[in-house]
Amino acid sequence: MPIHQQIEYADANPEVRATYDDIRATRKTDYINNFWKVLANDPATLKRTWESTKQIMGPGALDPLTKELLYIAVSATNQCPYCIASHTASAVNKGMTDAMFHELMAVVGMANETNRLVSGYQVEVDERFKDAK
Amino acid sequence: MPIHQQIEYADANPEVRATYDDIRATRKTDYINNFWKVLANDPATLKRTWESTKQIMGPGALDPLTKELLYIAVSATNQCPYCIASHTASAVNKGMTDAMFHELMAVVGMANETNRLVSGYQVEVDERFKDAK
Amino acid sequence: MPIHQQIEYADANPEVRATYDDIRATRKTDYINNFWKVLANDPATLKRTWESTKQIMGPGALDPLTKELLYIAVSATNQCPYCIASHTASAVNKGMTDAMFHELMAVVGMANETNRLVSGYQVEVDERFKDAK
Amino acid sequence: MPIHQQIEYADANPEVRATYDDIRATRKTDYINNFWKVLANDPATLKRTWESTKQIMGPGALDPLTKELLYIAVSATNQCPYCIASHTASAVNKGMTDAMFHELMAVVGMANETNRLVSGYQVEVDERFKDAK
Amino acid sequence: MPIHQQIEYADANPEVRATYDDIRATRKTDYINNFWKVLANDPATLKRTWESTKQIMGPGALDPLTKELLYIAVSATNQCPYCIASHTASAVNKGMTDAMFHELMAVVGMANETNRLVSGYQVEVDERFKDAK
Amino acid sequence: MPIHQQIEYADANPEVRATYDDIRATRKTDYINNFWKVLANDPATLKRTWESTKQIMGPGALDPLTKELLYIAVSATNQCPYCIASHTASAVNKGMTDAMFHELMAVVGMANETNRLVSGYQVEVDERFKDAK
Fold first, then answer.
1. E115: nearest CB among F45, F74, F100
2. Burial of residue B13, with CB atoms counted within 10 A of its CB: 0-12 exposed, 13-18 middle, 19 or more buried
3. How high is the pLDDT of residue C131?
4. Could you read off the pLDDT tens digit of each residue along chain B, which spans 133 residues?
């Protein structure tokens, strides 16, 4: 049994229903993830988080699949099982192939390794990187 | 003064020189980052890390720029200043625009936020994500 | 089956029993959490950890409920399921309302987001914060 | 020299100026932190982040000082120097005493320690915490 | 059901089989951990990761048991349940006693605590540590 | 200028002086690290932290050098510059050679990499590790 109750559409207040409706319309699916159903205990956070997600994860200078890969990279670094499972599913929906996933994992592993080599060896930032953007 | 001496090409042993030569040839630049010059204190790790980097960061199912974005996503999550500075420079070299960087940061920030909402609210993995890949 | 045996009171040596007795007296409950029963495999660490906890989590300049909220903030940031579950229970015992929990989570999420924006954008510390305490 | 240019009010576009105006009015100070001046390179993220901060950090079920303490707890756990420096200054402005800071640090240290004892010892969640909220 | 299929020897391609054979020969056991069977979905990463592991974890200036303890220290800090479980088993195989495990955990807990005290209190590096190696 | 004042022996109260005396006697040096001089702002935490350190880091089932290596492993994983610098100095004092440091770093890097491969690939714990200790 989940500790924080999942709020179903039928039991939701109008503010939560409005967010659920927007999730469904935006994602073109009736399914509402557990994440949103739990956040619905706090309608203000549900709304703010969904609206940020919608703004951030949509198409822009980066395409939505690349954004899902970045999400997985962060979630695997933080070791968040729910986030890895749900965004892996989203990425597959958006076209991630097995080969792409394998390369994503290889980069995430390598970056986590070299981040620690840098800190352990106390490597100083190269002058040329200090004003490179 | 850096704590771990940076090994310059002129002072390097043949094994380290061979790695430096390969870094220069692969990257089409004479410049060797401080990271490699410090790792050169341990030639075996220098060689292994460089060869893994070369294998992983090259073109494949994901293009090299996307891989740099993933590297930055991990490094910002881990808050590694050297890694952020050096891979931001690499990403710019490979075509990252300001707009792309801004969207990258927005996704990294959002994912770090929602990772903690998920854990704090103890959200359970949806059944449908348990065998979705 | 837990990997590290949980030491029950009946099976505990006198040093462990003394710590269990103090936990029970301090918390006004007979219940000993799994955490302490597992730590009891190392009586010195059990005793040191309990005594630090008792000293730190009691009333002082901050009240015990605020301290529980801080504990949850750290545990959600580190994504420690046990710690989140046990300290959420403790916080509820000490008076945490649903509204307080929601605001706690919102702050934790936001801080985790902005921590990464700061590092990714390589924001320099304002002069005025360098000697402000 | 900061890598990402800090956008001063005089150089800001109307959208950024509107956010700066709101920061100044809300905080009752002319000072704009480096964080906001760097985020201003991406006006959409500046606006979204500021509006979330304003919504989350204001008074509610938790008072603003408690929220600053929670922010520091997260930032110290993540080891974000900028965030620790800026929010320590904010907390002092809102009334944090030395004694409160010391207790905050003691809790943060202890929670980070016990989080790892729990994971290293593979402690299982107590039944009674599984449906306690 | 695991999301990423575990590749059994009978179903593996020749490249994966060669790695499995080397794991078995090196470890003097027929057993292949789930980790390797899942990585086998990406034969290049399986081979690279195994060869790095074999090179790094073998005897050298540090003995194999000390290396397992270091592995557990990292894994408990990152709170990776699989890694803690599998490397605790490996460490026991290599001679880790209960007393050693308890001391390992005490150091890991303490280091995680003091790391945050240092960052929260913004302690500056002593001059004498700046060129000490 | 450090934000939190460093308390020198001459300015310390008797409780702090007693701890400083014990640090000096135990470590056979007059030098007190910045860490302790900053913690001295909170004499109770200074005393508790020092006493825990003394208890934990002394000889036992693991020798003091191994404990320093574990400390560095945690600190590099958490990317704490002060902690890496100070404990690298301590480890050198206790006999850490360059070769040992290189192997330590290799293990830390590898463990951080594989921790994320495990989480990203959602590897399930092998049955045989579930009751192995």
1. F74
2. exposed
3. 73
4. 568 999 999 999 999 999 999 999 999 999 999 999 999 999 999 999 999 999 999 999 999 999 999 999 999 999 999 999 999 999 999 999 999 999 999 999 999 999 999 999 999 999 999 875 5
* Reported ipTM: 0.96
Separation between Cα atoms, residue B72 and residue B87, nearest integer Å: 6
pLDDT in tens, E56-97: 999 999 999 999 999 999 999 999 999 999 999 999 999 999
Cβ-based burial of E49 (10 A; exposed 0-12, middle 13-18, buried ≥19): buried
A52 inside 8 A of chain D by CB: yes
Contacts of E80 in chain A (CB under 8 A): 79
Burial profile D105-122: b = 16 or more Cβ within 10 angstroms, e = fewer:
bbbbbbbbbbbbbbbbbb
Query: Mean pLDDT for each 10-residue chunk of chain C (133 residues)?
Result: 87 98 96 98 98 96 98 98 97 97 98 98 95 63
Residue B107, C-beta contacts closer than 8 angstroms, at least 6 positions apart = A56, A57, A62, A67, A70, A71, A74, B73
Nearest CA in chain D to C45: D117
Token readout for A16 is 């939560």
In angstroms, the CA B84 to CA E96 distance is: 38
- Spatial contact of F83 and E126, defined as CB atoms under 8 Å apart: no
- Encode burial over D37-72: b for 16+ CB neighbours within 10 A, e otherwise: bbbbbbbebbbbbbebbeebbeebebebbbbbbbbb
Tokens of A20: 């659920």
- Alpha helices, DSSP H only, in chain D? 14-27, 34-39, 43-57, 64-78, 81-93, 98-120, 127-130
The share of chain F scoring above pLDDT 90, in percent, equals: 95
Euclidean distance between CA atoms A49 and B111, whole angstroms: 11
Query: Comparing C-alpha atoms, which of B127, B53, B123 is closest to residue B90?
Result: B53
H/E element holding E113?
A: helix E98-120
Counted residue by residue, chain D has a size of 133
Does C3 contact F55 at a Cβ distance shorter than 8 Å? no
pLDDT value of position A3: 81
Measured CA distances, B75 to C35, D116, F9, F62, F108 (Å): 33, 22, 40, 33, 16
- Cβ–Cβ contact A127 with D under 8 A: no
Locate B68 and state its tokens. 């740099």
Distance (Å, rounded) from C-alpha B74 to C-alpha B76? Answer: 6
Contacts of D104 in chain E (CB under 8 A): 120
Residue C69 burial (CB < 10 Å; 0-12/13-18/19+)? buried
pTM: 0.97
Q: Which residues of D touch E84 (CB under 8 A)?
A: 119-120, 122
Give D48→chain C minimum CA distance, Å.
11
